[in-house]
Structure formats: C-alpha cells, structure tokens
Amino acid sequence: MKATNPRTGKADYEFATDTPDSVAEAARELRDRQGAWEAMGVSARAKVLLRLADLVEANEQAIFDALAIDTGRRAIARMEVQGLARNCRRWAARAPELMDGLPRDATPSLTPGVEIVPEFSAFPLFGAIAPWNFPILLSHIDAVPALMAGCAALVKPSEVTPRFVEPMRDVLAQLPELPLRYVMGGPEVGQALIAHVDYVCFTGSTETGRKVAEAAARALIPANLELGGKDPMIVTASADPAWAANVALRSSVVATGQACQSIERIYVAREVADPFLDALVAGAETVTLTHPDPGSGHLGPFIFPAQAEKIAAQIADARAGGAKVLTGGEVERLGGGAYLRPTILTDVTPDMAVIREETFGPVLPVTVFDTLDDAIAMANDSTYGLSAAVLAGSMEEAAAIGSQLEAGAISLQDGALTSMVGDATNHSRGKSGLGPSRMGDEGFLRFLRRKALIRQTGQAAPIDAFAEGPPQ
User: Fold this and answer.
1) Strand, coil or helix: 404
2) Are 26 and 154 in contact (CB under 8 A)?
3) Which family does it belong to (predicted)?
4) Could you give the CA distance from residue 151 to residue 34 in angstroms, rounded to a whole number?
5) CB 372, CB 404: distance < 8 Å
6) Radius of gyration of the chain (CA)
7) First vs last Cα of the chain: how many Å apart?
8) Given CB 3.0 to 4.6 Å as the disulfide criterion, which of 165, 217, 229, 313 pairs with 386?
9) What is the number of other CB atoms lying within 10 angstroms of the CB of residue 86?
10) Collapsing DSSP states into helix, strand and coil, what is residue 441?
C-alpha cells in the first residue's frame, strides 16, 4: 500500500501489508510467547516496560520524524512520542500496585460450608485496531496496560499513518521478550486480527465500530469500543465571556479538531453571547496555519484528505440552512494539503449535519440559549455521549450542570480535559463507545479474567438430596 503525505498530497510512502495468513502466523507466534510473559510476574514485566520507555526516548527523533510526516504536525507529534514513554512508566508503576491489591483469600459463600477463592489471569492475546488522528498514542494506549496485565499484544495501526511503525519495530527488536507486534493493512487485516485475538480494542468512527462489534460477536470475544463524539460545551451567564471564549477555541481547534474529545457544539447564555462571540472571533483570527512552515503556526493539514470534503459538505449544508459564517468556512488547498481555519457558525439549527453528526475539524457552531434547562436539553439531544464541558462563574454551578449531562467525562471550568487526564474512569454513552473504561485503574483491570475456586469444606450432597419424594 501507499500512504499520502498530508502536507504535500503525494502518495510518497510504500509499505508492505499483511495477509490473513500472516496475521494468523503473528497471532500464533505471540500466543507461543504469552505464557512465559505472564509467568514472569508483574514486577518483571514492569522492568521490561521501563526499558521500552527508555528505548522510545533514545529513539525519539526517528519516531518523531516519521510521525511528523504521518500527521503533518510537529508539536503534537513530539507530545505523542513522549507520551508513549510516560504511559509505559505510568503503568509500570501502577499495575504492580493493582495486582497486589487483588483479593486472593478464601471468603465464605452464602451457601453453607462453601468457600470461594478468586484467581486472576490475563486474556492471552489482546488486539488493537487504531485510528489515524493520534497514531502513536492510540496504537499503544490500550496495548501498554494489556501487556502489563500479562497479555501478548497484536496491534494494527491505521494504514493512513503507517510511517512510525518502522522505527518502532527497530525499538521492539531490542526487546525480544516483549510480546508486541504490528500488522499492517486495511480493513481486511483488521477483520483477520479480530478472528485471532481474545479481546479487541477499537478506536475510530461509530460506523466502523459497528463492524468491529459484529466481527467480535461472531468470534465471541469482548470488544472495547472508543468511538465518535459530538461534544457539547455550555457557557453560563455567570462565566467570564473572554475566558470562556479562549477555552472554547482551544478545546475545539487543537489538532485541527481531529480529536474525539474536541468540542463540536457550543451553547452560550444570551446574557454573555455577544461578548463571548466577539472574543471567540477575535481569538479565531489569531490562529494561523502551519503552511508553509511546519515549525510555526497552530493548525496543520487534515491528515485524511477525505475528512476535508466531509467537513466542507457540513459547512455548505449549514450555510444552505441559514447559518452565518463568522470566520473561516473555506477549505484551503495549500502545497497539496487541505487546511481549514477556525470556522465559527451562528444561527445553526438542531437538524443541521454540523449539529447532528461528528465533524472532526475546527468548526465551532454556536447556539444561544435562554434557560439552563434549554441548554442541558440541547446538549443532551445527541446520539453521542463521549464527553462534554461546562464553563460557569463557579465550580459549584458547573458541577451541578455537569451532573445532568449525558456523557462519560465532563470537563468543568475547562474543555477537552480527557486529552490530558488519563486517570478519570468513565463510561461513554450512546454511539460513543462500548465496554469498560480505558481511563483509570479499570484501564488495566479489564484485561484480567477472574476464576473462582469453589471449595466444599463440608459434606458433598448425596444424590438422594435431589430424589423425587415428599417435601423434607
């Protein structure tokens, strides 16, 4: 396959793809190694993950160079590589504590004479199917805790952003004891992966997530799905409008809005709507593109070219329905890449695609509300429920509103905090996901299967206890 450079628009990177047979072989090889990996114990596994962190840092430049081409951005690419090392160290420290805290002792059953002893073991082979928007982060965010739990890990990065795999394979070659492998290719490789693993994590669109869930159901394996979002932000009448506009802008447009936790709907109280919009427009006009210099500016190109077309269609639909475009609004083709400046929309209606469907770009549709009940109802009027945000005059006011929002993670007095906070256990609503939380301790514990040793300490019941006859 060939991958396109998002800055030039040229398909300038060719890579070998796997076949169903090679995926099956990779799965067999990992299964052969998994037993020894789990048997070495969590403390020994932690030492290996710490070495992985060191090696990622030692090879940071090579991984960064590849990822920067993959994504067309530099600052966030650097953060991703450094974040992988931090993630390894985080779980290397936390996983042994969690394993030590698991119940091991016999406890009396409600059934007289019976005791229950719990045992825990890892799913033998974990699989991950990752998206293109944060290639390093999302290829490993689940794999690292799975490895710490004792699983072997088979990861399929996105075929849109494959370049980082080559330097990462060089890193893994220095850790032969680590049962982690990558397989490359399109949807057929993802389907083959699901057929051979014991647990699959998928990050991506709701549409593809359904296909993953269906394949996992056929294989009768658990599927953890982290899907799309249409995250709302509520700005109350007591919020400082200039501060709120600054938070809203950052939460919406960082990474060119190509993040599932980006704010994609803004509901602002009428009392502060005008100064909020003035500040939002002023802030948006200071945001610059990273063209022609990738080392300066704020917003890079769309990583996946088709995304630009989808967003342009949403903006056109909003315009046709009477929405006003205050800033941006036009996809710019620069040097072969597709860019969009922050696009602020007003006079949007609930039936517009820009309100109903995930956008995944730097588009900020703003709706004015008269009562908080209206704001909460509009924020909850979505088939998605990934995350949300509330900006108010006090934390108490923000928390009272946040408790009424139907989403898994609510940022209070900030926005998109889930991109920076990894220990907030939460469960997505609606079409935004399925399964345990990848955040918090549950992000590790989900990879352990529980077995019950049920001990009969009294007399086993004779067959006559179940014979027909008069009641005893």
Assistant:
1) coil
2) yes
3) Belongs to the aldehyde dehydrogenase family.
4) 6
5) no
6) 25
7) 74
8) 229
9) 14
10) coil
Contact 193, 28 (CB under 8 A): no
Task: Please write the tens of the pLDDT for every residue from 51-82.
Answer: 999 999 999 999 999 999 999 999 999 999 99
Residue given tokens 């960064």 in the structure block: 64
Non-local CB neighbours of 400 within 8 Å, separated by 6+ positions: none
Secondary structure (3-state) at 442: helix
Between CA 92 and CA 43 the distance in angstroms is 8
Give the Cα separation of 338 and 106 in Å (integer): 61
Distance CA 396, CA 387 (A): 19
pLDDT per position as a tens digit, 378-435: 999 999 999 999 999 999 999 999 999 999 999 999 999 998 999 999 999 999 999 9
Hey, CA dihedral for 161, 162, 168, 172, is it positive or negative?
A: positive
Query: Which residue reads 């090679």 in tokens?
Result: 22
pLDDT at 472 over 70: no
Domains in the chain (CATH in brackets) are 2-227+432-455 (3.40.605.10), 231-419 (3.40.309.10)
Nearest to 361 by CA among 254, 242, 234: 254
Q: Which of 345, 233, 332 is nearest to 290 (CA)?
A: 332
Query: Which residue has tokens 């190109």?
Result: 301
Active-site entry in 201, 260, 358, 397: 260
- φ, ψ for residue 307, nearest 5 deg: -65, -35
- Helical ranges in 19-74 per DSSP H: 20-39, 42-58, 60-71
**Tokens, residue 361:** 């770009």
Q: How far apart are CA 1 and CA 14, in angstroms?
A: 6
Annotated catalytic residue 226: yes
What is d(CA 172, CA 225) in angstroms, rounded to the nearest whole number?
26
Annotated active-site residue in 80, 159, 226, 264: 226
The answer to whether the Cα torsion of 202, 208, 213, 218 is positive or negative is: negative
What are the CB-based long-range contacts (under 8 Å, 24+) for 357-360?
357/230, 357/314, 358/205, 358/206, 358/228, 358/229, 358/230, 358/264, 358/384, 359/230, 359/257, 359/264, 359/311, 359/314, 360/133, 360/228, 360/257, 360/258, 360/259, 360/262, 360/307, 360/310, 360/311
Using CA atoms, how far apart are residues 224 and 216, in angstroms rounded to an integer? 10
